[in-house]
Amino acid sequence: MSTKKTSSSSSSKLLPAVLAICSVLVVVVAWSLPQMIPPLFDLHPPRAHPSKTMAAMVYQTHGDPSVLEYDTQHPQPIPKAHQYLIQVHASALNPCDFKQRRNPHIPNFVSPVPRIPGADMAGVVVQTPQSSNSKFLVGDRVAALIPYWGTPWGTMADYVAVDEAHLAKLGPSLNYTEAASYALTGLTVLQSFANLEHDDSLQGKKLLVHAGAGGVGSFAIQWAKHILQSAHVATTASAPKAEFLKELGADQVIDYRTEKFEEILLDYDVVLDPMSWLYEDRSLQVLTSGGHYVNVVGSDWAFDDGIERGNGPTTLINFITSKVRNFIQPNSTPKYGFVGVSPNGAQMQQILDAMESGKIRPVIDRTYHLSEAAEAYRYLEEGRAKGKVVLYHGEMVKQQQSNAAEDDTGGEEKVSHEEVVAADEGAEESHEEKPQSATAEHAEVQAE
Ligand SMILES: NC(=O)c1ccc[n+]([C@@H]2O[C@H](COP(=O)([O-])OP(=O)(O)OC[C@H]3O[C@@H](n4cnc5c(N)ncnc54)[C@H](OP(=O)(O)O)[C@@H]3O)[C@@H](O)[C@H]2O)c1
């Protein structure tokens, strides 16, 4: 009898402790779950405006570029209380856009349709957040990478809602197409190099950048050579692009069609690999045992049934092997890291400042009008772009472009970058007069 009493009284004493521990666990899990969601995922995307519309590129179903439609009556986003409304003047294309668009297996909460593609943008602030101490003002020229998972909103539209933490300001000599060009790929490079374990400096080091002629590669070569002062930058590309890559700062260009880089390069400190599905194992061979392999998590441009062709188990095996071997004996084998790019206003500012100072040259292969985005993606999806493919937005610029196209005798470029820059500057002048009226127009959106 007395034993029973003792056990029931001790269990009643334990109950509050168990409840307290459970409550703490629930709080910890509830707090940490959102922290685990990458910043590239927008958990609460802006709502659609019930009556205000805008021009936007949109797809309703997954598929090839033919699913893209130019909708001039698409709802505008209503910025959240802490967000800015930006009138977009230029946006850039990235492979992640079309990989997302082509893949019919992505759950709708991860990539909702109807979807506006695009994550890179430059434009002008037309509405500031409700708080009085906002960092940017109406009329400021800004650029950003915005989150591209979990949201139906993208930058290939006349307006986009953007968090303050993702924005950076353009210097006076940068135009919108240049400023938009290297948002996602530039941030990928900054974050790749910042993530190098133990050492974020490339000064005096030997670096191999794969696919040097692409959006990631053309920025990485310049950043490594002119900002981080790498001693030697080697890159892989097709032969016709070698001279252009040397102008950007590459010391050595390996023609991947006729040469094997692993037979030529030795004792490299870092490999930045946007082509890991093809080059991962061979890249590990050219590194010193204490070197760094940075997997940019690339997958093939062409893939079957919407499924990306990546590296699968090879990557996991290499990653685990590197961790285990380096744990047992530090620097016994190359260190292995991944990068998943995130929006970051401070780093975006570094990119814009480097372009403004002339240390980094925006490499724009082709420019198209927003309404021609399907054609622009068809070009990007061939996998041969040299630098970036950029869209310019707006009727006035488009008008100037079609006038220019009438005089065009048919060069390779769809529209020359210089022509867009000239029109772009015209657009900037016209915006100097516009912001106040645009603000008035959008203030009522906030009120609703
Ligand atoms: N994890 C992340 O956060 C992240 C961020 C950015 C990009 N990525 C991924 O990284 C990859 C590259 O992106 P990107 O924007 O640089 O692509 P991109 O601009 O479309 O790259 C095109 C370039 O790739 C070059 N190329 C094609 N095959 C090659 C080969 N076998 N060897 C060397 N170069 C080759 C082409 O040059 P040639 O004409 O000379 O062949 C072309 O100039 C994509 O898969 C993308 O999804 C991931």
From TrEMBL:
Pfam families from the UniProt entry: ADH_N, ADH_zinc_N_2
Domain of life: Eukaryota
A cellular component annotation (GO) from this entry: mitochondrion
Residues annotated as domain Enoyl reductase (ER): 63-391
InterPro entries from the UniProt entry: ADH-like_N (IPR013154), ER (IPR020843), GroES-like_sf (IPR011032), NAD(P)-bd_dom_sf (IPR036291), Quin_OxRdtase/zeta-crystal_CS (IPR002364), YIM1/Zinc_Alcohol_DH_Fams (IPR050700)
Keyword Translocase: no
Biased composition, class Basic and acidic residues, residue ranges: 411-420, 428-448
GO molecular function per UniProt: oxidoreductase activity; zinc ion binding
Keyword annotations: Oxidoreductase
Residues covered by region (Disordered): 400-448
Name the record gives this protein: Alkenal/one oxidoreductase, chloroplastic
Organism this protein belongs to: Seminavis robusta
